[in-house]
Amino acid sequence: MALNHLLVSLIVLLTFKTVSFAEIQPKNLSVHAGDSYEFVQREKLPDFSLLMWIITPFSKNYSETIVTCDNETRTVDVSSSYKDRVVLNTATFSLTLKKMLKTDSGLYCTTTIGQKTIPVCQYNVSVVDNHGSTTTNFLPLILLTSTLSTIMF
Ligand SMILES: *[C@@H]1O[C@H](CO)[C@@H](O)[C@H](O)[C@H]1NC(C)=O
Ligand SMILES: *[C@@H]1O[C@H](CO)[C@@H](O)[C@H](O)[C@H]1NC(C)=O
Ligand SMILES: *[C@@H]1O[C@H](CO)[C@@H](O)[C@H](O)[C@H]1NC(C)=O
Ligand SMILES: *[C@@H]1O[C@H](CO)[C@@H](O)[C@H](O)[C@H]1NC(C)=O
């Protein structure tokens, strides 16, 4: 009996997942390594008791919870692997991830637990290398130019 109930819940969960994946196109974006990015919560939320941001990294086979927020207490629980890098806006439920790493590349989804469980994948993120950045290349060039000028004149 209990097992049956569990199986039914699991099937319902999987069905919801399939439906949402098909209906909602995540936004493709690329972010430079080291940058911060604010994942704006774009979907209309149902009544919920818990909201979670979850990631399915490209490099992994499974999803991981980044943050959980309790609707009533607005308590934010950050997963230990994201400690100090995550800010959740408890009014808008937008997620800011700081100092992004290449391993942060993946599919970012929100799930709510309460009346319904609807995983909505909102962002498909590729974290790309930062070489060619103007700030790191420009400054040495200016210094070199002024040094040369000093030597030559
Ligand atoms: C995102 O990229 C994938 C594969 O490159 C593509 O199939 C999908 O349509 C893109 N999504 C959007 C919203 O442009
Ligand atoms: C949060 O909980 C309150 C009561 O507990 C409820 O009235 C409200 O609709 C919930 N908010 C959301 C966004 O579900
Ligand atoms: C991913 O999961 C599939 C089965 O779901 C398994 O066959 C495969 O080995 C897994 N790959 C990795 C990299 O864990
Ligand atoms: C996410 O982006 C990757 C790489 O850009 C692409 O291969 C993949 O198809 C995209 N997935 C979705 C669901 O848009």
Automatic annotation (TrEMBL):
List the InterPro entries: Ig-like_dom_sf (IPR036179), Ig-like_fold (IPR013783)
Name of the molecule in the record:
Immunoglobulin V-set domain-containing protein
- The chain's coiled-coil residues are none
**First and last residue of the signal peptide:** 1-22
Superkingdom in the source lineage: Eukaryota
Instruction: List the Gene3D superfamilies.
Output: Immunoglobulins
User: Keyword annotations for this protein?
Assistant: Signal
